[in-house]
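Q: What would this chain look like folded?
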Amino acid sequence: MPTIDSNALAKFYPCTENAPLGCRKPTETIEKIPGAKFCLECGFPTTLPVQTELRGSLGIYRISELLRSQGIGRLYRGTQTSNGQPIVVKEYLLPKQYFNAVEAQQRRIALGQVAKGNLTTPKSREFRLVSPLETIADPESDRVYLIFSGEIAALPTLKQVLRETGAFSASRVRQVLNQTLQSLHFLHSQPASSDSKAIALTAHGNLGLDSLVISDSDYVYVCDLAYWEQLFVPAPPQALLPEQDLIDLGLVAFALWTGQPINSGSNASLNPREAQHWPQDDLPLKDFLHRLLGLGASFNSAAEARQALIKLPQPDAVGFHENLSSSESLAKPKRKYWLLSLLALPLLGGLLWLLLPRFISNTNAETNNVKPFLPSFADVNGVQAGQYPYTGESLGTWTTVLDKKPVSNRNIKSLLTQPKLDIAAIFNYRTYAPQRSPLDEVLKANAKANFAIATSTQLPEGLLQETIAYDGLLVYVPAYKTQNLPSVLQGKISFTQLQQIFTGQLTNWKQLGSNFPDLPIKPYRPTEPEALRLFQEKVLGNDPNLIAQFNKIEQRSTFDTLRSIAVEEKQTQKVEAGSISFGLLTQTWDQCKIYPLAIAQENLDPVQPLLKETANNTMQPISPSDNLCLEKNSLRINASAFHTATYPLSAPLVIAYPKDNNLPGHTSGPLFANFLKTQDGQYLLQEAGLVPLQTPPKNYTLSSSIMNR
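A: My prediction, written as structure tokens:
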């Protein structure tokens, strides 16, 4: 789906709605203080006041109203003062927070070429591409504008219409596909321009429900191409591929047909990877979309796809043909079809992960994972030779991850030190003593530590972050059957009980109820700073009084606690029977002598972080009656609960790098993230005990470039 994250600006402003482009506060600031340039609440640039005049090379344009935020900018309706003709203005921002003077000027110049794109339209043909009339880019202003003639650019987006009217009929989906494929064919066929200053448009690159607008008569227009939208996102530009446009159009059609916008944040969000989520009223259209998504024989071009669409039989015609056929003549094809389907299921599962992004209902998750990930380290571009030192906690998650050995006898550290063997780009990892913060080191000595990897939800000022996986804490008790705490606790514990236990308010399990054993509670704080900070934030709410009491609890490393619980001697088990502790996911999730408790927050249902695979290949939460050592191979982390943050002790594992683009980590941090956000990188993180952004297929195999090292 679209490469451009419309909420990218939210990282740089403390907007209460976490969406400064669409927030009402900047407009309210203008209404309260005429002439104000920045929002009173978060400092985001205010909207343009009505009657503002913009001077371009082709005329003067007067703003009449703010329409909406769209993509990475704002839309306004206005008129050209010389002739009163309607126009639409799209405003983009170049805030100094993340564009220095040189970068801002580069983007002004690049935007200035947009209107010179030389889209060569044959006479008497209409391809419904919304192209700008001109650009306005004052070198002294942090605002730049695209001017569109007429009112087409102000039409509602497909997302707006879908929200208002619900699912499109199959025939209406076909109309959208037909028109958009025609537009894409025109765009993908643009000849190379002889003008060196003109941009080369070969793909849309940002196709989605928000970049397609529709008229009352169902004419669909294509807008917000990635070439100019991505100029205003502080990230390296993405490659624009025609074949990706076809996949993205398939996802748009799926969303329209099912009536469920992709990544809508709804728990009912549908998923094209699930066969039962597809409508069944137009099977030829369903088969066509499978091809468009690349799940079958992919189309070579938009033109080929459009011709196939035009030739699709109508659903009624299919039904009529089937009625004329005898049941005897249909029996063999049907059996053949189902046999082929069954044989194709493993391949289909792999292809789905290779070609489609995860569709998760997490509005807080960063949206830079909507594209399919590159297969391997060898496919990451933009890598330059050099030394790129980075850091993390000495006893933290990343140190544990690097020591894991998912590939023969080689640990992950050896694979990530030089990800591409043909380029001497060396990522050396070093740690600091527990009393020193890796995040502070990135800010203070960026040459020694370009970036840090940490489990964190709160970063110091001056750092940006990119999520590479999900981490968290497990709260656990011994899985002993003699003093069966998992069963007595019914496999769960509440935040309130955790607070009381780890601040010394509860000292005996009997205090939790008459059915509990008369057994001293022995809480242990781990020694890992990352785990302590996460517990203080999530469970204790960073309350200084609670933390002071928490710091009095006996401390023992996670390794020592797990080792003590695992001892088989009866006397040792008697000593450890009442213990309870917590630890980082990577250090605890696969230890079968402990039982991870489901966590209940306030009035919400408890969420179990571990699942087990059943005999019929479904996943269900573990229960106290399970023997986790016998079922160790079937255990899985509850990925959905971590992605959606419904498991309350989950947190993103991030690469934290400097906001200042003059520091080396500003480039090397996102570059390292690119390696980890390949399919091979995500597989390695999963094998190390993290929750990947995209879950690999069950029988995923690492690329030969890694296996053959």
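Residues 120-125, 192-200, 263-268, 317-370 have pLDDT under 50 and may be disordered.
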